[in-house]
Amino acid sequence: MKPTADQRKAMYSQIVRSREFDDRVLELYFADKMPVFDLAKGVIPGEIHSSHGQEPCAAGTMPHLSLEDTITSNHRPHHHAICRGLDLNKLAAELMGKKTGYCAGKGGHMHIYSVEHKFSCSGIIAEGMGPAAGVALANKMRGQAGIAVSYMGEAAANQGAFHEVMNMAGIYKLPYICIIEDNNWGVSVSKKASTAIERNSERAASYGVYGEYVEDNDCDLIFEAMARCVERARSGQGASILEIQTYRLKGHMHGDQMAYVPQEEVAAMKDCVVEYRNKLITEEVLTEEKADEIVSQQKSEVDAAIQFGLDSPYPDPDDAFQNIYAGVSP
Amino acid sequence: MSSERTLTVARAGREAVMWEMQNDSSVFMLGEDVFAFGGVFGTADGLGEMFGPDRILDTPISETGFIGLATGAAMAGMRPIVELAFVDFIGVCYNAIVNLAAKHYYLSNGQVKVPMVLMLGSGGGYSNGAQHSQSLLASLAHMPGSVVVTPSNAYDAKGLMHSAIRSDDFVIYSGQKKVAGVGMLGTPIKTSMSVVPDEPYTIPFGVANVIREGTDLTMVGVSWTVHQCIEAAERLQSEHNISVEIIDPRTVVPLDRDAIFDSVKKTGKLLVADEDYQSFGFTGEVITSVVERDPSVLTCAPARVANPDLNIPYSRPMELRVLPTADRIVEESKKMLGL
Ligand SMILES: Cc1ncc(C[n+]2csc(CCOP(=O)(O)OP(=O)(O)O)c2C)c(N)n1
Ligand SMILES: [Mg+2]
Fold first, then answer.
1. pLDDT, position B2
2. pTM attached to this predicted model
3. Among all residues of chain B, which has the CA nearest to that of A106?
4. Which residue of B has its CA nearest to A260?
């Protein structure tokens, strides 16, 4: 299934939206952490893992998912959240720890929850897999529509949870898709140094599930591959592993100088936003003017969201004592 | 003759690792991001280049696997140092820690030794969210079979690291991220830096350090909270003329209960500060160790300042509310002293 022209334009808008958001976050992040760099300081504190370069992994897969489907994300969640359609204002506010954020400041960058979007994240590697597969199991048990998808990095496939969950996804034939964004690095360790085989999608054979590798960080190719995985999940044929070759353009987290990445590799990294724009213009899906229009539209929405975050109040310190247990009083 | 050097905790600990690796070929390091990156918190900075990939091993993100491997290597006579960047990750490898490394010596009736060091970074206070900010000290100290080391300053960090590597026991070396003095967390805490001798030296496990002598109130802190106690003590001294004695146990397992008791016997008042979740933890243990020996040494109820049993919120005002800060310690002290 190939994407239509409208779908392609929409995917372009999504990668631009995510990129604009990450660009503004990056700018704000470094604006107020000096003179001595301190993670604790500034309007956006803590570690930030940006999605620069990996946007197509979300933009190309999300069009196949409806609000009946469930998504779990990882420590690098901005592109997933944005392409899933989460509200930019609440997202920006959560990153700033504001009361108006998705979790009223309790979660932060690595812990964004939106029940309405069936969206959650975990900062512990590969631990989004179990919960996603669990939702798939629940849906299957109740005969409900809705599949589940977890997003993670290639290095996460070496975590015990990966093996355990994929095996169960195979046994129970779960409507579940494990999407692996292969940016070739887990912090400072290359895929070659951490993984005994070349492609994690080949591991599908060990679990009796479907596996596919997408060799280019291209929205169209990802869209087509995801269509096959989703079709299997929806029609009762079980789980898939979809691995996508992508690029981590800004290092592991903001502040990472990437000194350990070989020069040639940095030079060969492709910027998907530029590439996809050129492709759509060459194929006459977009004109330069139309593409610029999309960029300025997304930019202004992102700017408004960032402003919303900045203008929002902080929670009260004692709000920390709210929602400790669902029923029990501590 | 080299001149006097003031080092950060991370630098001092690393110096001990370096010396032991140069002098004992059975010592090696493994963990995530140790080779090229030098460890997420700088604990292995430059060691990759110095010792090469055969002795500084990068691992996949497979914690239960590599802690199991290290346990085996230790059983085979090596002295592995395992780097687990964040203590929060013990969630995925707790079995290897608790049921393997900490049990073999006892279960084998002393036949099998596990001379291994597990380094980890604990603590929050910089908005890193609930899965990257925990202390989890009690989760480490509660289990029998492991030594738990918690240096608060550079001098202790080096001496305790030498002791940890040379020990025939399984040692958990719990570093606090803000105490470590690593680049990304701003200016190092002044009182965590110390003059560190060039030559190697050891510090025995289970011997507390009296950080500051005093007569009115005893404070017991651990790692980062030692520095919060120091700040609180200075304020109580200058604002209320209160004399505080501060005890840093340096290792929580074994715990120097005598030193704590002796101090409380002198001051009559005890406050314990800990970054971990309060219930079932360090604060309760310290207070009990005094009370069960002789409750009459206390002239008022003891106090504790810890995390009020909450998962750690990301947002700064809420996170500050749950941290055992100097402000909270001063406030509790004043209540005890009727100020
Ligand atoms: C269980 C666990 N171990 C280690 C970490 C620290 N950590 C955070 S991200 C990361 C690398 C992840 O690499 P990958 O899965 O490829 O995702 P990427 O960052 O490349 O998107 C590591 C080691 C963690 N969060 N959880
Ligand atoms: Mg990766």
1. 58
2. 0.97
3. B313
4. B36
